[in-house]
Design goal:
- The structure is a single chain.
- The chain is α/β, with parallel strands linked by helices and 522 residues long.
- The protein is 26% helix and 17% strand.
- It has helices at 6-41, 70-77, 92-101, 130-135, 192-195, 248-263, 296-318, 370-373, 399-407, 424-427, 500-515, and strands at 44-51, 80-86, 140-146, 151-152, 190-191, 200-205, 215-216, 219-220, 226-227, 238-239, 270-279, 325-331, 377-380, 389-396, 437-441, 447-451, 454-457, 481-484.
- A hairpin with a 5-residue loop joins β15 (437-441) and β16.
- α2 (70-77) crosses α7 and α6 packs parallel to α7 (296-318).
- The longest helix has 36 residues, at 6-41.
- The protein is globular.
- The N and C termini lie far apart (72 Å).
């Protein structure tokens, strides 16, 4: 019988154990490095939403623009420029709701128009929003700039909120301009960005609405203990001492830059929703930007928007975060085309300078025509989205939330993002069409549906601001309007009476989406 050497057995056994432990250590190290790498690769997300910027304002979208926009143009060169991007509404509040929730706002109680001064929140407390979704991935989140989605205003008659029972969106509500007298401005506000899921907020809510003061989180930074002068642009109501309309854009830009600088010191990724207040009225460019365009004060204010975009890009690059940041620049609707007279002006008056903010499309802000809802849309992510590319796919601002969810591998919930499509494949050069159809909605509640080349409008006119203009052939004599957008981008050849089959097809599809609780079935 062969004699076994105990020392050799133990040595062999120990060597085997050592080898196994080494492999386990390497596996754990690999797992750690993979985890760290994954965390590092989780992108920051910055959405810059201009206010009333038209498709034809940036020079990269309009070779005949009279406004210098080097930073917006530069962002397009570093990323992807979309030519068929649309807002879910042709006015402010509904678009912001759609962007943050992935759902059409006409499914809420706001069936037309926007929220007005002292209205309660439009976003439901239990609804999934962009910041709530990103918290599941450990993002820091901030909203800086314009909110316009409602607050719960604390009552000065005891506990509770004074606007809980006031119907929203009722511009003609009797006594609306006096509601502020029922508010305790020293108490914490309810609703707002914090209730919608953001960690931090700084802004002025709406630049032409009272109260004229800055908000920070759920408080006003200064008590509005004065009354806005009648000769200052905007609705009536309380104002804080020293308030200047020209200071809003510089201040929110400074705060957005500061937020980026602070968050780059953290290991957590961040989401910044930077909602500009320009070039919406009051058209109030600072002296630094006056005279810098060939389109009057409106053009100068758009140039200030471009400067603000440049400040964000500069902050990201200087902090070393640009290459790991998905940036989306867009607008909440088309431009009303005011020239800036007395910080406002008549609609379409800026055209006297030879500048058309909607070029080459028909219509303007609030309209159901393309100029009301087709907007600039630029996506940039260094090394991920191919630089200097143009994308002609049909997309909507409601699609952004689903696309980010897909990028971050966040599962979709059945009761959320009901009108949102995942367009992330097209960001990475997959040219397969994703969105087949899209619903448009104007300020007066007019519906339209786009499918492929075709657009059906359930109305006889613009459904918005252009109703105040004399336009040949408008209102149309048919019950609605049907256009082939590819062949007829100016929406001048109404085929409603000549193509009954297409009218019936699109009408049935639109009614299907109206009656259902969603239009996206991903």
């Amino acid at each position: 019988m062969k004699k076994v050497n105990g020392g050799q057995v133990w040595k062999k056994y120990f060597t085997k154990i050592k080898s196994i432990m080494r492999k386990i250590t390497l596996l754990l190290l690999a797992a750690f490095l993979f985890s760290a790498c994954t965390e590092e690769q989780k992108p920051n997300i910055v959405i810059i939403l201009a206010d009333d910027l038209g498709y034809g304002d940036p020079q990269v979208y309009n070779s005949e623009s009279k406004i210098p926009t080097p930073n917006i143009d530069g962002l397009a060169k570093e990323g992807m420029r979309f030519t068929d991007a649309h807002t879910p509404s042709s006015v402010c509040t509904p678009t912001r709701y759609g962007l943050l929730t992935g759902r059409y706002a006409w499914r809420t109680e706001l069936k037309k128009s926007v929220l007005w001064m002292w209205d309660k929140p439009l976003i439901e407390k239990d609804r999934l929003t962009f910041p709530k979704m990103l918290k599941n991935k450990d993002y820091s989140t901030a909203c800086i700039g314009k909110w316009h989605l409602g607050w719960r205003w604390p009552s000065n008659q005891g506990d509770g909120y004074m606007n809980d029972t006031i119907p929203i969106g009722n511009y003609g509500l009797k006594g609306r301009n006096e509601l502020w007298k029922k508010i305790d401005f020293n108490k914490a506000l309810g609703g707002g960005p914090l209730e919608a899921g953001f960690d931090y907020y700084f802004g002025d809510d709406v630049p032409n609405f009272a109260p004229y003061t800055f908000f920070e989180n759920d408080r006003l930074t200064k008590t509005p203990d004065l009354i806005k002068p009648n000769d200052m642009y905007g609705g009536p109501g309380p104002m804080s001492e020293g308030w200047k309309l020209e200071n809003v854009m510089p201040e929110i830009t400074k705060r957005a830059v500061k937020y980026i600088e602070e968050k780059t010191q953290s290991d957590k990724p961040f989401f910044l929703y930077f909602a500009l207040t320009a070039p919406h009225t009051p058209i109030a460019p600072t002296d630094e930007f006056k005279g810098k365009s060939e389109a009057g004060l409106y053009g100068d204010f758009v140039h200030e928007v471009d400067w603000s975009v440049g400040q964000i890009i500069k902050a990201l690059k200087q902090s070393g975060q640009f290459e790991n940041t998905l940036i989306i620049f867009t607008s909440d609707n088309g431009s009303p085309q005011r020239d800036g007279t007395n910080m406002g002006g008549q609609i379409a008056s800026v055209k006297k300078y030879g500048h058309d903010p909607s070029r080459p499309w028909k219509g303007m802000k609030a309209d159901i025509w393309e100029g009301g809802h087709r907007v600039p849309f630029i996506a940039s992510w260094h090394g991920k989205i191919e630089a200097n590319t143009v994308n002609n796919q049909l997309v909507c601002l409601t699609d952004v939330i689903s696309s980010v969810a897909s990028i971050l591998e966040i599962p979709r919930k059945k009761d959320a993002m009901e009108d949102s499509r995942d367009i992330s494949p097209t960001l990475f050069k997959n040219n397969t069409p994703i969105r087949e159809d899209l619903i448009h909605h104007s300020i007066d509640g007019t519906f339209a549906i786009r499918k492929g080349d075709w657009k059906l409008i359930e109305g006889v006119n613009a459904g918005g601001f252009s109703k105040g203009l004399k336009i040949e052939g408008i209102p149309v004599e048919t019950k609605g309007q049907l256009y082939n957008i590819t062949d007829d981008p100016s929406e001048g050849n109404n085929l409603y009476a000549k193509n009954e089959k297409k009218v019936q097809e699109l009408s049935q599809l639109l009614n299907k989406y109206k009656n259902a609780d969603r239009s996206s079935y991903e």
